[in-house]
Amino acid sequence: MALFHYQGRNPRGDLVEGNVEASSADVVAGQLFNSGVTPIDIIPARAQQDVLALLRTQLANRRPNLSDLILFSHQMHTLTKAGVPITQALSGLAESTRNPVMGRALQDVTHNLESGRDLSSSLARHPQIFPSLVISLVQVGENTGRLDEVFLQISKYLELEKDTRDRIKAALRYPIIVLTAIAVAITIINMFVIPNFAKIFKSFHVDLPLATRILIGISNFFVTFWPYLLVGLALLIVGARAYVKTEQGRYRWDKFKLRIPLIGNIIRRSILARYARSFAMTSRTGVPLVQGLTIVAKAIDNDYIAERILSMRNGIERGESLTRTATLSGMFTPLVLQMISVGEDTGAVDTLLLEVAEFYEREVDYDIKSLSAAIEPILMVAIGIMVLILALGIFLPMWELARAARGSS
Does 56 reside within a domain? Predict the structure, then answer.
């Protein structure tokens, strides 16, 4: 169906116009004649783009986040535990979900189930929404008949994951705001403040201190080349984002994140906590050890650590013990390695891995709480150095000029 704009005369001879949806202009003409309007002109209507409507559409079509997956897992646990058929449960969730993308995905999953596919393979058709860990655990739940328990474990795992991410973001929010404010202040000072002082100093025709000359030189560079700096910054950001999307770039970025001062250890421990908890969950649900390590490597969202986990898998395939492969990976502390060894000896690897996860989560929680206290002195020193440089560069020549003026009088 296309949209047509028409003009015509009604039985009184008055000019009327409007828009009509129809398959062709002839159909529009027939409808107008039947309503007593004599058509004069019928043309395809131009679609008027509503910017706000487009923005609302883009926001509505956002990718489902962890909160959506947590809600989905909770609902599926409740429905499957109550004995509701899976197709009926998914159909109801597709209609009630707040995210249109999730709703369309669940409708497609329902259609696949009705056509004979199992739930895990139907979810696997939407890898951008359902992580590989979720799909693998659902497959285990289908095979063991404990789908409701699996969805409960998935929801608990995702809740802990979301809580860790939110705490890290909250800890980094303050330093990011301060650093942004410093960058804006430096830009304003170089673009507007220092040039005005430079004009004053130039009018006195005196030799300026080295710090002042450096500040004026930097300011002149900003004022002269700011369009090129903006373009270069934009190209740098776009190029960096494109590089990180490549396999090699993503690996190097994931490795670099673990070496960032103050933050790198928090990221490393949160990833190891995620590894231990997801590995314990796969072991507890009956996933084979080698397959579980493969699943976990895909689930931790860090290519550098994933490579270490895959090397552990290769060692286990060669017949080595879990403790030895964990030691060779170089990822764990001696205390954690001892816990893994005890778990392997007692046959309670999943229980000990959960304790490892809780150990790392406690360390992450402590580091996050102390992060602000560790960053604040560094930020204060940086601000103090910036103020000192500005004071030396701007106020020293003013004091010299004032002293010279008093001496001449």
Answer: no
Do 292 and 283 meet the contact criterion of CB atoms below 8 Å apart? yes
Both 141 and 41 in one domain: the answer is no
pTM of the complete model: 0.66
Q: What is the tens place of the pLDDT at every residue in 91-145? A: 888 888 888 888 889 999 999 998 888 898 899 888 888 887 788 788 878 877 8
For residues 202 and 352, give the distance between their C-alpha atoms in angstroms, rounded to a whole number: 72
Q: Are residues 9 and 44 in the same domain?
A: yes
> Which CATH number belongs to the domain containing residue 380 in this structure?
1.20.81.30
Residues 332-350 have pLDDT tens digits of 888 778 888 888 888 788 8
User: Total domain count for the chain?
Assistant: 3
Q: Estimate the share of the chain in helix, then strand, then coil, as percent rounded to the nearest 5.
A: 75, 5, 20
Does the CA dihedral 271-272-274-275 come out positive or negative?
positive
Residue 55 included in any domain: no
Cα–Cα distance between 257 and 184 in angstroms, integer? Answer: 25
Q: How far apart are CA 227 and CA 239, in angstroms?
A: 18
